[in-house]
Amino acid sequence: MLGTMRFTGQLMSITLASAVLVDRLGRYAALYLLAGVAAPGGGAYSLFLAGLKTVLAASAGLSFAGAHASLLRGRETGNASSKRA
Q1: Which residues have a Cβ under 8 Å from the Cβ of 13 and sit 6 or more positions away?
Q2: Sequence-distant (≥ 6) Cβ neighbours of residue 32 within 8 angstroms
Q3: Angle between the 2-25 and 44-73 helix axes, to the nearest 10 degrees?
Q4: Keywords assigned by UniProt (predicted)?
Q5: What is the per-residue pLDDT for 79?
Q6: Cα separation of 8 and 70, whole Å?
């Protein structure tokens, strides 16, 4: 179960980052940043940094919410290895 939750978190973070990047730079965001193709208007890097700030703020908020939910859940009782058998 823990592996599934980790994978889901990784998937959500990549999805969030991609969505913000495409929102800020448009459909050809990777082309502008990685291939060295000049973006229309020439502001690809400043737009990327603005998107990065948004992604980091959203990720920090989600991390805080996850940590808070984990604290509210409390400790599990019993031995985890005995539950598997």
Answers
A1: 59
A2: 25, 38, 39, 44
A3: 150
A4: Membrane, Transmembrane, Transmembrane helix
A5: 61
A6: 16
Token duo for residue 50: 């603005």
Q: Are 24 and 50 in contact (CB under 8 A)?
A: yes
- Write a three-state SS string for the chain: CHHHHHHHHHHHHHHHHHHHHHHHHCCCHHHHHHCCCCCCCCCHHHHHHHHHHHHHHHHHHHHHHHHHHHHHHCCCCCCHHHHHC
CA 53 to chain centre: 12
- Delimit the domains of the chain by residue range: 2-74
| Number of Cβ within a 10 Å radius of residue 30 | 13
